[in-house]
Design a protein that fits this description.
This protein is α/β, with parallel strands linked by helices. It is 36% helix and 26% strand. It contains 8 helices and 10 strands. It has a 6-stranded mixed β-sheet, with helices on both faces. The radius of gyration is 18 Å and the shape is globular. Bound molecules: adenosine-5'-diphosphate and magnesium ion. GO terms for molecular function: ABC-type maltose transporter activity; ATP binding; ATP hydrolysis activity. Keywords: ATP-binding, Nucleotide-binding, Transport. Belongs to the ABC transporter superfamily. It comes from Allosediminivita pacifica. This is Sorbitol ABC transporter ATP-binding protein /mannitol ABC transporter ATP-binding protein.
């Protein structure tokens, strides 16, 4: 589960093409980072995969199924947003269970998944608190918990740590990497931060003006950047 392929996908807003024809393969269980400067199309690409934007042309396949025209809810992907988007009046337990309540999942199953997510995220002692009583890092974990309970084929993160201070960012980076180790679910992670890309990714996709400049492991990109842009962006000595 969690194999995603993009086949000649393009996206235009009005007359402006922000994603020229783009091919990409993401393998099951991979941690893929989309990195590039602000405005290069990272969020747009992620939103196309999530189904939050319609493709202008091309096809998106998820686990072999053509998902190009599927609404977000049918794609079995979970997006973790930049802002936590938690409900302040609900407890952590209710926040995490929210998507399952909407889907009218069996109550016992809801409880089981909340307990499991809380265990994985070290939130067991905080289930009866409200978001206002939590630290920034804990709130981010609740947002991830809400994604976990949907048991998605892949997690999509759009700069999830940009609201956190530098010290907390390092901690959360490690936590997300550990979560990937534990769940072994495909993760696509968008950032403009080279350090995050280099430390977290199995595979880095370097974007500039909507185009893929290079795809490779952090070591590949560091050792053999394909051009000056990649070298400069990754901080390679070449
Ligand atoms: P990034 O996430 O890498 O900063 P975005 O994907 O947000 O970049 O934006 C890529 C380009 O698409 C930018 O030029 C941006 O202005 C444009 N864009 C994004 N969303 C819209 C939209 N809804 N309408 C028009 N232009 C948009
Ligand atoms: Mg963005």
């Amino acid at each position: 589960m969690g194999r995603i392929t993009l086949d000649k996908v393009t996206k235009s807003f009005g007359e402006v093409q922000v994603i020229p024809p783009l091919d990409l393969s993401i393998e099951e269980g991979e941690f893929v980072v989309f990195v590039g400067p602000s405005g290069c199309g990272k969020s747009t690409l992620l939103r196309l995969i999530a189904g939050l934007e319609d493709t202008t042309s091309g096809h998106i396949r998820i686990d072999g199924e053509d998902a190009t025209d599927l609404p977000p809810a049918k794609r079995r992907l979970a997006m973790v947003f930049q802002s936590y988007a938690l409900y302040p009046h609900m407890t952590v337990r209710k926040n995490i269970a929210f998507p399952m309540r909407m889907a009218k999942l069996d109550k016992a199953e809801q409880d089981r998944r909340v307990e499991e997510a809380a265990r994985v995220l070290n939130l067991t002692d905080y289930l009866d608190r409200r978001p206002g009583q939590l630290s920034g890092g804990q709130r981010q974990r609740v947002a991830i918990g809400r994604a976990i309970v949907r048991e998605p084929a892949a997690f999509l993160f759009d700069e999830p740590l940009s609201n956190l201070d530098a010290a907390l960012r390092v901690g959360m980076r490690l936590e997300i990497s550990e979560l990937h180790e534990r769940l072994k679910t495909t993760m696509i992670y968008v950032t403009h931060d080279q350090v995050e890309a280099m430390t977290m990714a199995d595979k880095i996709v370097v974007l500039q003006a909507g185009e893929i400049e290079q795809v490779g492991s952090p070591l590949d990109l560091y050792r053999t950047p394909r051009n000056r842009f990649v070298a400069g962006f990754i901080g390679s000595p070449k």
